[in-house]
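Render this sequence as a predicted structure.
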Amino acid sequence: MSLKLKDKVCIITGATSGMGKAIAEKLSAEGAKLVLSGRDKVRGSKLESSLDNSIFLEGDVRELGYNEKLVETAISNFGTLDVVSLNAGILGLGNVVDLPIEVWHSTINTNLSAIFYLSKYAIPHLKKSKGNILINASIAAFKSFPNHPAYCASKAGSVAIMKQMAVEYGPDIRVNAICPGPVDTPLLWDSAKAFEHPESAVENAGKSTLLKRLGTPEEIAKLSLFLVSEDASWITGTAMTIDGGIINS
């Protein structure tokens, strides 16, 4: 069997749960060498031990120096960098009037500024390897939800910076985004707390898709693998929706 990412070196943020974890497992299965980022040391160490050629680095993507260290870790241990998969994200629930200022800043810094930080240090190496960046955005970049102002703003910004970097760094680097809809992850269940009846909100989200169900992290990982592999060699500057059709419902 031909491995799509054999010996490719990938940094994956948000790797310890949900979609980021599924992406890490999928890329590893295709032969990638991984630098895994997350804040949960226990889950990160467990993931590291379960995957070949992987290094877990505990830290906070909101910190500029930590992002620089992720890149340095990839280069010092594996000698190159081919893929950056950006999945770290938080919700920052609350309406504009009630949302604490510190929650706004934390959400923007996690979901958007961290993309800038890691890309800043990764791009010089990605130019050498003709690599690519994949941003895990959301349909919230295009579709608004109650009590998600910071989340929606940050995800719209992540699509905008993706397009800008694709223009700036093509043809050397491909830059794309995926925009998931309701995927069965801990973040979805946290998001549902913005509604009066969270369980019903999750159930209704699945029923509202054209395919009448929630997505799975594994389905997101399959699309991510495609976009970071040579199968997508002529795709850049694209925000690809993967949402069971909910944005059209």
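Summary. The first helix runs from residue 18 to 29. The chain has a mean pLDDT of 96.
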